[in-house]
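Risk register update: the risk of archive-format incompatibility is retired. Evidence:
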Amino acid sequence: MSDPHAYFATHLRETDPEVYGAIAGELARQQDQIELIASENLVSLASLDALGSVMVNKTVEGYPGRRYYGGAEFADTLEQLAIDRATELFGCAFANVQPHSGSQANLGVFLALVTPGDTILSMGLASGGHLSHGAKVNLTGKWFNVVNYGTSAEDGRIDMADVMRLAREHRPKLIICGGSAYPRAIDFAAFRQVADAVGAWLLADMAHFAGLVAGGQHPHPFPHAHVATATTYKNLRGVRGGVTLWNDEALTAKLNSGVFPGVQGSVILNAVAAKAVCLGEALKPEFKDYAARVLANARALAAALQARGIELVAGGTDTPLMLVDLRGLGLTGNVASDALERAGLTCNKNGVPGDPEPPQVTSGLRFGMSAGTARGFETEEFTVIGGLIADVLEGLAKAGAGDNGAVEARVREETRALCRRFPIYPGLMD
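Archived output:
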């Protein structure tokens, strides 16, 4: 039998150097690269502490005070704390903090409010929507009759008159607003008017701007939405996971059972503990400053790119993300994102409205400001970053089939120098 003392007392560095090495490598990558992926952020050390805590050992099913397993005293304390903080932060009456992701939060809403075969109206994936809103390759697209609205060819924004037309024509049971690559603010009141006109539920998916809602920098989904979902990472600066929020007590049993036992089993309690941490951080006055800086930084980067002649979908941003259309440069998203990563600028390729390229290639790039803002970058730094992005893209466009290595190497040194002015997690794995 192995030594129990060693099992409980030996750290990862000693027991599994391969795993430790991969984690250490990822830490070094995050320290020395500028993270511009809109779905990512940098959590606090307190969040890391909670996520790596002994709560990982505890299994519970059900909700606080109504568990199927014993020994749940502190599990109940933690989950109720996360619920209370979520409702206070978003000014709503009820919250479910168990969803493992935003996608599962959405699926729980589907299970609660609609029946397979019902009609759903949501933003199309090609216009900035999300897989979990009824994309054909997703379970939601296979089980429901999904109708998509898009964006205007003139300005890249949602055309609410067209949304109303589609709703009246197709009579959806559920309307979804929000997406993963739509950079402009959502008019929740206008969406509620559409939902009321056809007797539909309105789901607001605020995964990509929940931190701005919490910080008063984006319109609030309540009181207009019947239910809202969000992720706790991205600009809430927390660990990966989702939350569901609502005000109508009559929906409580349905929405809770949609999550458990509907689409999930046991609660990931260490994640709930870390969610409670990030929600508590977001309730502090300084979080409003963070949210304001995220939006200011997004607009600074947008202006810097546009000053270099780079086209932005919808002409700019009201959120922590923006979408670059590369067609004017003759570039594709996969080639451009690889070049930027070599230069120390991590982003993701992304489709643009009317994209002629397949999803593995794309004609666009998506940039997000949440992580850079968390490490301390201000508008001055994002203006510099915009210039560095433009240098790489312009060099790549001029090089054609040639070599852009010199530009990428020079930018890589500049990005590394910038990162070292704003260190993260000092001494974490020393």
